[in-house]
Specification:
By secondary structure, the protein is of the alpha/beta class. Helices cover 45% and strands 17% of the residues.
């Protein structure tokens, strides 16, 4: 049995999950593939039935009788109808929608419309709002009344382009985001990122990405967060809209071809192992991952301080690293080089073979790799 089959492709990696909706599903998918998951919802949604903005938008929609309605998410549409029923407006809403042209962003939306007894006129093959906008602008929207079901992410330029083309546009905020009531999990995630203990952050919404950046800035940790991304922490986004707040800060992102949770997890399963450092140490295959090592296919997870030393040694395989350089990788250790010796003893114990890390008297430590071969 291969190590991937035994432990999962994400074994040894730590992944932070900032999602509010479907966080449990995403976390379970990652854990089943071996990842250690840090749950830290970066936002929360306003319950639809309690959302006065949605109620006001629904009433405006019923009064204005739109010519065309753009429906963007299945879960948002279903929640909207359920909330309208709770307000005693459900049947009136369905009647108004039934009298309008309906554009559905994707197959899930089409299914939700049909389940409500409605039928879409058109749906883009790409599931892209850009394709929806191109179609509307090509056919012309001047003088038309258009309702757009907003879905929590910024539809950059979409509403503005329709208005500039002469349409009267009503935005329907089906769910709105607020900061989480409990900020402690987000703060713990940020502290772990700053300490170098997080390998990837998958994002499923632009508001979650923006909220994490905002919280980091409020805590004075934004420079350290940006540095973590530059130093190799992976930012994986479910789609291009989700990536916008990160890209605005110069953060490189990766995205799956299909904008779904499954492909997003598959992307992580490809990207993270491909970034692992693989060495031949004392005749053993030594694969250094975020918080662990695959040693001849067997997963070893040293304590955090010990793993910090190993990451430094692995960056200079075969070469001697001084105690002073290793000490700098141990946060809060001050100037006491005894901390290096303690962490090194724990590292050797976790690896199960003291010969993998050699002591070079009066100089420091090295991985048992031939410097010529390593270079």
């Amino acid at each position: 049995m291969s190590s991937e089959q035994q432990y999962g492709p994400l074994a040894g990696f730590t992944v932070g999950v900032t999602a509010a909706r479907r966080a449990g599903e995403l976390g379970a998918l990652l854990e089943r593939r071996g990842a250690q998951v840090l749950h830290a919802p970066a936002l929360r949604t306003v319950p639809l039935a309690d959302d006065s903005e949605l109620l006001d938008a629904t009433r405006r929609l019923l009064a204005s009788r739109p010519d065309l309605v753009v429906v963007t998410t299945a879960i948002g549409f279903r929640g909207w109808v359920e909330a309208a029923r709770g307000w005693g407006l459900g049947e009136e809403l369905l009647t108004v929608l039934g009298g309008a042209r309906l554009l559905a962003r994707g197959p899930k939306v089409k299914g939700a419309l049909r389940a409500a007894g409605l039928s879409e006129e058109w749906s883009p093959v790409s599931e892209s709002m850009a394709e929806v906008l191109d179609r509307l602008l090509t056919e012309g929207v001047e003088g038309r009344r258009i309702a757009v079901q907003l879905h929590g992410e910024p539809l950059t330029g979409f509403l503005e382009a329709l208005r500039e083309a002469g349409a009267e546009v009503v935005g329907v905020p089906v769910y709105r985001w607020l900061p989480p009531e409990d900020l402690a999990p987000v703060d713990r995630l940020l502290d772990a990122i700053v300490a170098g203990a997080v390998d990837a952050l998958p994002f499923t919404s632009a508001p979650a990405a923006a909220s994490l950046l905002s919280r980091a800035e409020a805590r004075g940790q934004l420079p350290a967060l940006l540095a973590a991304f530059r130093d190799g922490m992976l930012a994986a986004c479910v789609g291009p809209v989700t990536a916008l707040p990160l890209q605005a800060h110069g953060i490189a992102t990766v995205q799956p071809e299909r904008f779904r949770l499954g492909p997003l997890v598959q992307l992580l399963c490809r990207e993270l192992p491909s970034r692992a450092r693989v060495l031949d140490v004392s005749g053993k295959r030594f694969e250094v991952r975020g918080s662990g090592v695959l040693l001849d296919g067997e997963l070893r997870v040293p304590p955090p301080a010990a793993m910090a030393l190993l990451r430094v040694l692995a960056r200079r395989p075969g070469w001697v690293v001084s105690r002073a350089d290793l000490l700098r990788s141990l946060p809060g250790s001050g100037t006491d080089e005894h901390a290096v010796e303690t962490a090194m003893a724990r590292l050797r114990g976790a690896l199960g073979d003291p010969e993998l890390v050699q002591t070079v008297v009066k100089r420091g430590y090295r991985l048992a790799v031939d410097p010529v071969a390593a270079g």
